[in-house]
């Protein structure tokens, strides 16, 4: 299945436009995908296809001190130290595709759950189709990673739970995200909450 720019951008906008989000894709140039994720976090690379994501923090003045703002090193460290590949790798766990599809929907809800999807007029199946549309961009063979801590157990996320924990990767009180890594691109889908 192939995807076109209009369908992909429409799915991203519809799901995340009303939230506080960062959705961007960059090229995969390094064997170690974490270097490419860091480049996307720092907004150092454009979308390789020229497609538009969402970046609700792009103009924050904190970016002069921390190019990857709102992404930051672990809390124990100097928050304005540049991010490292280790910072990224130690806070992400691989998850399966089904979990990634559900996570894309959960990122639209405070608390990273699937409980409040009724604010959308579409059915759950239609919303799920939008999540699949987003992932289709990355081809048939990609890996997914998240900072949602339930993912570190067995690579799956159970969205019947009332809430999820996460390992913070940003300056915000809540941040849950998904990283999609293909042979040619890396995509970041992040939602923030200031609790």
Describe what you observe in this structure.
It is a single chain. This protein has a six-stranded antiparallel beta sheet. It has helices spanning 5-16, 33-41, 85-89, 97-106, 124-136, 151-154, and strands at residues 21-27, 54-55, 93-95, 143-146, 174-181, 185-193. Helix 1 crosses helix 5 (124-136). 27% of the residues lie in helices and 17% in strands. The chain contains six helices and six strands. A hairpin with a 3-residue loop joins strand 5 and strand 6 (185-193). The protein has one domain (5-193). It is α+β, with helices and mostly antiparallel strands and 195 residues long.
Helical segment count: 6
Shape descriptor reads globular
Strand order of the largest sheet: 2-1-6-5-4-3
Distance between the ends = 39 Å
Query: What amount of the residues lies in strands?
Result: 15-25%
pLDDT < 50 runs, ≥5 residues: none
Total strand segments: 6
Give the % helix: 25-40%
Radius of gyration: 15 Å
Based on helices, strands and strand pairing, what is the structural class?
alpha+beta
Summed up, the domain count is: 1
The biggest beta sheet is recorded as: 6 strands, antiparallel
What is the H/E order? HEHEHEHHEHEE
* Average pLDDT reading: 90
Features:
195 residues; alpha+beta; six-stranded antiparallel sheet; 6 helices
Briefly say what this structure is.
The chain is built from 6 helices and 6 strands; from the N terminus they run H-E-H-E-H-E-H-H-E-H-E-E.
């Amino acid at each position: 299945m192939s995807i076109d720019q209009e369908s992909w951008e429409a799915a991203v906008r519809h799901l995340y436009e009303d939230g506080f989000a960062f959705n961007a894709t960059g090229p995969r140039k390094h064997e170690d995908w974490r270097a490419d994720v860091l480049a996307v976090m720092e907004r150092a690379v454009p979308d390789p296809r020229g497609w538009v994501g969402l970046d609700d923090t792009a103009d924050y003045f904190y970016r002069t001190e921390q190019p990857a703002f709102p992404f930051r090193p672990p809390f124990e460290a100097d928050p304005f130290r540049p991010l490292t590949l280790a910072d990224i790798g130690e806070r992400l766990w691989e998850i399966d595709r089904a979990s990634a599809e559900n996570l894309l929907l959960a990122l639209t809800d405070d608390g990273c759950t699937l409980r409040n999807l009724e604010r959308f007029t579409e059915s759950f199946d239609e919303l799920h189709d939008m999540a699949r549309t987003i992932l289709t961009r990355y081809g048939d063979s990609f890996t997914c990673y998240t900072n949602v801590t339930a993912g570190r157990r067995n690579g799956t996320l159970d969205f019947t739970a009332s809430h999820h924990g996460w390992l913070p990767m940003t300056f915000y009180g809540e941040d849950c995200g998904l990283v999609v890594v293909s042979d040619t691109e890396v995509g970041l889908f992040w939602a923030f909450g200031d609790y």
